[in-house]
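Journal club prep, shared notes

We agreed each person brings one worked example of a sequence with its structure written out as tokens. Mine is GNAT family N-acetyltransferase. I'm keeping it raw so we can talk through how to read the token line rather than staring at a rendered picture. Sequence first:
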Amino acid sequence: MQLERTYDFGQVARLNRTVHQLHVDLYPDIFKPYDEHATAQFFQQLMDKEHYVFYLAMVEKRVVGYVWVEFKSQPETLFKQASRSLYIHQLSLEPAEQGKGHGKRIMKQLEDSARERNLPVIELDYWVNNEGAAAFYEKCGFKKQREFVYKQVE
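Then the structure, token by token:
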């Protein structure tokens, strides 16, 4: 497993279909249907920003998924200490590649990358009904730090 940085927004948009469709299935009242063209334009704009990085997950020169990360640096405020982290926005594997240990290898490489950049924390979030993500990240040693709640008002 190798992570290779990419600027191919079209390929990332195509790979995004899997994770986006999962979100649509879990939360159809929140997520819009997948639109490859609009998604490619969105990722193209993000790839121009230095702190966002996209990696293709490669197994023997074959693309099996992608990861979108952000290198965050938050200044100290009156309320919080300064912080630096590697934030995972999305990690997606093609359906046929899931359950083969690729995700764990990706996470290991991201941990190594964080250490190399002297980033003490890896952060991420996932939707509460995404039980697969919850189980995976727990196995990878992630712990809950904060809860996000809502109340529907009618």
